[in-house]
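Reviewer comment 2.1 asked that we show a complete input and output for one of the modelled complexes. We chose the MU-OXO-diiron case, as it is the one discussed in the main text.
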Amino acid sequence: MKPVELAKDIYWVGAIDWNIRDFHGYSVYKGSTYNAYLIMDEKITLIDTVKRPFADELIDNISTLVDPRKIDYVISNHTEMDHSGGLPRVMHRVGEDKPLYCSQMGYKNLSKHFSQKWNYQPVESGGELNLGKRTLTFLETRMLHWPDSMFTYAKEDKILFSSDAFGQHYAGLERFDDEVGEAIMPHARKYFANILLLYAPLVLKLVEEVTKMGLSIEMICPDHGIMWRRDPSRIINAYVQWSKQAPQRKAVVVYDTMWHSTETMAQTIVEALGARGVDARPYHLRANHRSDVITEVLDAGAVVVGSPTLNNGLFPTVSDFLTYMKGLKPQNKIGAAFGSYGWSGEAVKLLSAELKTMKFDVIDPGVRLQYVPDEEGLEACRNLAEKIARALPE
Ligand code: FEO
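Response of the prediction step:
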């Protein structure tokens, strides 16, 4: 896609990845974009690059506006390869001696990714770079979501180049929030749940800091998806809301099953929760991707996990999901376990122990039923649901 002018002399020059469906284990049904930005000031400046296979597309886009050799400065807001993979190709075209601005950690990390003696210019948080008509300010955002991450703020234009923060994995011809409307929010929410949830406390701290600094923001330009120009506060407020992880009267019942017994338990629990006014759904782990389930976990007050016992342990998809969820550290959740077994039946105990390790409030020892649930077993599932429903906020 050709460059798009976002503001006077500021262009999106990135690339659209229509076909990506798996982003390091995160399902991206709508593809993604790798956003890069060109500022045509007295000092021509490129902010971020793209994933390596798209480097030529980036260079072609830049070339429709200016000879890449005329770029004076390159800024790397983040080292991860979806934004820096194209850097060697870009630096080769722009000039290996051109100043490359990044955070202190960016310098360390880029040096470890690329054996290149580029003209690194590590910056401190609050550092400024004058381009002629405008000045850029750098703002370190360590661990949002890598140690090297930083924002770049264009003061005069009131544009925040926010790296991964506020992004969405969404490929489309639209470049702005007002062109997509509310339909973009599920993508932003999923992105937050899968990329930033672990750092939710830092998000709250950062928003507080930015508010104190009094930065006026008229547009947010992330490194994935659309740019927020209609109402940037919409996504900032959503981040604050998501980061607080206030539990809702909602339960995610996530499970796998071998011969449908654990599935019957899951559905019984969901129906009983629903009858008690809980927003509940079952998520079979071979019908729902882990990254979609974790998106639902974001505002759920309860996560109820079911697994059959397989070879004295958990079913592999359930272990996979628990590993994924553990890494993202969701907070303020009630936890409970259930599952069917044949003879040894360790799964429920293992699930409860895992949920406790994740600091979930495990409110019941869990329901374990041998072979096929009978009416008494199903009643135990309903009783578990009753207990969960009572513990959830009204
Ligand atoms: Fe989009 Fe952390 O890379």
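The chain has a mean pLDDT of 97. We note this here for comparison with the apo prediction described in Section 3.2.
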